[in-house]
What we know:
294 residues; alpha/beta; TIM Barrel; binds 1,3,4-trihydroxy-5-OXO-cyclohexanecarboxylic acid; 3-dehydroquinate dehydratase activity
Amino acid sequence: MTLRELFKLPKSINEKPLIAVPLTLGPNDKLTPFAKKLQEQNPDIVEWRADYIADDFSQAVMWQQVKAGAQAELAQKDVSAMTEAKMLSEMDNARQEFDATWPVMNMQIIKELTASVFNTIGSFPIILTYRTQAQGGQGEMTSVEYATFIVAALRSGFHFTAVDVEYTLDSELRDKVIDVAHELGVPVIISYHDFNQTPDVSALIADISKMPADVVKIAVMPNKEQDVTDLLQATRAATIQQPLITMSMGAIGQRSRVEGYKFGSELTFATLDGLPVSAPGQVTISELLATWTK
Ligand SMILES: O=C1C[C@@](O)(C(=O)O)C[C@@H](O)[C@@H]1O
């Protein structure tokens, strides 16, 4: 099965790979200008990089906000030291109450975040990705928080075209997330990143393909031109059942993003013009299309 078939997308008319653009907006950015550019440049897929926003709604951050609000209110009141001490001790009880209700609040927050993405750009297929710092992203969640986030977003009632699950996630949690995705009919991309070097890509492809992955994705850093050639050749030589996405990152690896499809990589990440990259070496859609029509 091809990646297009798996994602239920129309057949390509020119044998080119799918183009995915990353949505890397943080809590203070507006989605509407992104949505407008999206309509203009019309990529195949949007990858929602939730790690750029989700940590701003973590339990610790939300509690800090509640606490800061209460303290600001206290500061405005002219209260005695005794009353102030009493109110502060009440904060401890409030903290316990906050912690007890957090799982429900967390689900609601994740649902609202997901809804805001789908309500603005849901006419495009969306891949759900939360990239941890260990794999080159912004995300600081623990493995349990990561799995909770992904499962809650998948169960939010909005249908993702695919979900990215990191290869390095603890295997028990990984299986749990994959089970939920499959129960909801969402294909799982198992992805591996190395921002320092190009390891043995063939071995990695073989290893990931043995997992319950519907798509295998590998993004690694070349230190020399030969590393890019090795990645492309490993992509061509792969005999796995699942669709494959590979790329060499950084400046040296850029050609893999443009011509990787000739070796069997079925999707390439590019940015909307003028928007930031989500990994080194990504080109813009315009650059990509210009190179393809040369
Ligand atoms: O896994 C990938 C590939 C990527 O790292 C890249 O190199 O283009 C960009 C990420 O947003 C995406 O999740």
